[in-house]
Amino acid sequence: MAKKQFKTESKKLLDMMVNSIYTHKEIFLRELISNASDAIDKLYFRSLTDSTVKTGRDDYEIRITADKDARILTITDNGCGMTKEELENNLGTIAKSGSFDFKKNADDEAKEKVDIIGQFGVGFYSAFMVADKITVESLAHGSDTAYCWQSSGADGYTVEECSKDKVGSVITLHIKEDTEDEKYSEFLDQYRLRGLVKKYSDYIRYPIRMMTEHQQLKEGSKDEYETVIEDETLNSMVPIWKKNASDVTDEEYANFYRDKFFDYEAPLKVVRQKAEGMSNFEALLFIPSHAPFDYYSRDYEKGLQLYSSGVLIMDKCKELVPDYFSFVKGLVDSSDLSLNISREMLQHDRQLKAIAKSVEKKIASELSKMQKSDRENYEKFFAAFGAQLKWGIYSDYGMHKDVLQDLIMFKSSLEDKYVTLKEYVSRMKEGQTKIYYASGDSIEKISLLPQVESVIGHGYEILYLTDDVDEFALQVLRSYDEKEFSNVCKDDLDLSTDEEKESLKKENESNADLFTFIKDSIGKELHGVRFTNTLQNHAACLSSEGALSAEMEKILNKMPGAEGQQMKAELVLEINMNHPIADKLKALFADDKEKLKQYSKILYANARLVSGLSVDNPAELSSLVCDLMLG
Ligand code: ADP
Question: Using a 6 Å CB cutoff, which residues line ligand 1?
């Protein structure tokens, strides 16, 4: 029979598995058992609505056999099985979840071996670390013909009919010969196998059975032993979230998390919750230590696994976590839910809503605790998921600000550290009534803004907003602890004394014609021109009026779909009335309007650049500057 080739990616991964230098080869067993358990889950699910499933709930099992002489290890399940197509598709191509990470890491040869292999999700192929030939015989539920998939590694695989009368799969591994460095025979040893099941698969909810040999005293004898063979269930079947918290080690949580939620790193935080009374449930939640590769894309699906008294009824129940906590992984197990509840019913289920509310509260309080007592980890968390919290504030118009506003943080002008709004307010200067912020692409750029310099000069702290969503979120919040947010590049900061205000007002009034002239020289994109007395060293700056700041304009216009309907901030050119430039402009207005026109353009272009905006007509600017240089 002709061999079929593996898909390219799969082939690479296979090669790595076959030649693996990875030391944790033992994880292959966990992977195969986990597949078997998933397959049983699937058939069990089906049995809830499909009466043709004949397997009874108590009949499900995963069975291991080991034959030392023949070097054969088998893992058998009576789950859903695979059709011919499924054998080809599932085992001929590596699973999607794994494949992406594989691609990402494949560039980096050194990392390759450590990062991917065995840490998670390479699943079935990991068996090639210990086996030189693998056979999968499978009969799918509802199908009359069984098929056998067989492969000795990277050179391809065959699929042909075989005889098998029970629904499910048998995975047969021909274990590699021992070498000087590797004793593959250990994977045929019953004690070793039992130990591995205990270590990695103890919580699997179906019995994992194996015939094991024991020595026991012969009946009626005091010193004569005989060998008895016993059908032993190797796993305790107690799910990890049903165990006493004190009996579960960090490593066990991490293993469980990696295995179930396809991460290669341990979680940043494990949260357990148990509720009794109005609603009865247990939750085991994980906060990942980094954002999944697709987290900020549309492909990411939030949700927690939902169990009803220990039986999985839904893999990603999105009703259980709000969008702003969509990064949370984990599960909820409740005795209040019926087993065959449908997705549609779930959306309206009161019990489920109550559980979700309580889970949300728990997450918020755990995050808040972490923020206070473990700032280092919280900052790590915030770097990964902070933007999501801020989106949360913005996207539902602040409806959940009570949950979120104390969880967000910003860098600030005071030190290179994150500060919460509460901390900012607590260290506000006497008499300060507003929370100042400035936004831009980076901390460095923001700190160079003319207005920033001036506000810092007055002794105030400024929040530095660098995420696209930041300013939108603050606009939705409007204020914190009754202190309004104020954009130092947009809002009237009211930093001067009455006297200063009065003299500014006079200056502005008496130069109205000058301003009109400058404005007309620049064109209609400029909303206005005026003097300011708040700048320190800079000659001019741009500020904006209305709801949209210059930074928001930039962000909105780069969003997909923004082409053609460009949003415009109402920009105002503010000229430092105490700078020599102010006098120069006044003088030119009196004697040389042509020059004033050119200088206005240069001044405006400079102000745009300093604000991080681009210049519409760089060629014109360049020739203006050359003219200026030539005198
Ligand atoms: P993953 O488990 O991460 O999806 P695997 O490579 O381990 O990746 O398995 C690929 C697919 O093959 C599984 O998603 C499943 O559909 C199928 N599969 C593997 N083992 C079994 C089994 N024992 N019974 C039924 N289907 C299986």
Answer: 31, 35-36, 39, 77, 79-82, 90-91, 95, 97-98, 121, 123-124, 169
The ligand 1 atom at the shortest distance from the C-alpha of residue 34 is: 2
Query: If pLDDT is split at 50, 70 and 90, which confidence band does 612 have?
Result: confident
DSSP string covering 505-551? HHHHHHTHHHHHHHHHHH-TTEEEEEEES--SS-SEEEEEESS--HH
> Which residue lies with its CA nearest to atom 21 of ligand 1?
35
Q: How remote is the C-alpha of 327 from its chain's centroid? A: 5
CA atoms of 191 and 211, how far apart (whole Å) = 11
Mutate to test the pocket of ligand 1, among 17, 29, 96, 124 (most ligand atoms within 8 A of CB): 124
The minimum-distance atom of ligand 1 relative to the CA of 123 is 7
Ligand 1 atom 13, closest CA? 90
Q: How far apart are CA 416 and CA 447, in angstroms?
A: 12
- Cα(123) to ligand 1 centroid in Å equals 7
Closest ligand 1 atom number to CA of residue 97: 3
The set of long-range contacts for 546-553, using a CB threshold of 8 Å and a minimum separation of 24, is 546/570, 547/475, 549/439, 549/471, 549/487, 549/489, 549/490, 550/489, 550/490, 550/611, 550/612, 550/613, 551/439, 551/440, 551/465, 551/471, 551/489, 551/612, 552/439, 552/471, 552/472
pTM: 0.70
- Distance of alpha carbon 28 from alpha carbon 571, whole angstroms: 63
Other CB atoms within a 10 A radius of the CB of residue 226 amount to: 11
Q: Is the pLDDT of residue 97 over 60?
A: no
Phi-psi region of 612 (alpha: psi -120 to 50; beta: other; left: phi over 0): left
Question: How many angstroms separate the alpha carbon of residue 124 from the centre of ligand 1?
Answer: 7
Q: Give me ligand 1 centre to Cα 125, in Å.
A: 10
Cβ count near 274 (within 10 Å): 12
The tokens for 499 are: 């006297």
Nearest residue by C-alpha to atom 12 in ligand 1: 90
| Residue 429 DSSP label | P
| Phi, psi (deg, nearest 5) at residue 7 | -60, 150
Summarize the confidence of residues 296-317 as an average pLDDT.
Answer: 86
Check pLDDT > 70 for residue 118. Answer: no
What does the pLDDT average to over 345-359?
85
Measured from the Cα of 125, ligand 1's closest atom is 6
Nearest CA to ligand 1 atom 16: 90
Residue 113: pLDDT over 60: no
618 contacts 612 by C-beta, under 8 angstroms: no
Residues 237-243: contacts with CB under 8 Å, at least 24 apart: 237/202, 237/203, 237/204, 237/205, 237/206, 237/207, 238/202, 238/203, 239/203, 239/205, 239/307, 239/310, 239/333, 240/203, 240/284, 241/272, 241/282, 241/283, 241/284, 241/331, 241/333, 242/282, 242/310, 242/333
| Residue 477 CB partners (closer than 8 Å, separation 6+) | 393, 398, 401, 405, 485
d(CA 475, CA 176): 64
- 354 burial level (CB within 10 Å; 0-12, 13-18, 19+): middle
Which residue from 567, 538, 572 is spatially nearest to 554, judged by alpha carbons? Answer: 567
Name the residue with the closest Cα to ligand 1, atom 11.
Answer: 90
Mutation to probe ligand 1, out of 38, 76, 206 (largest number of atoms < 8 A from CB): 38
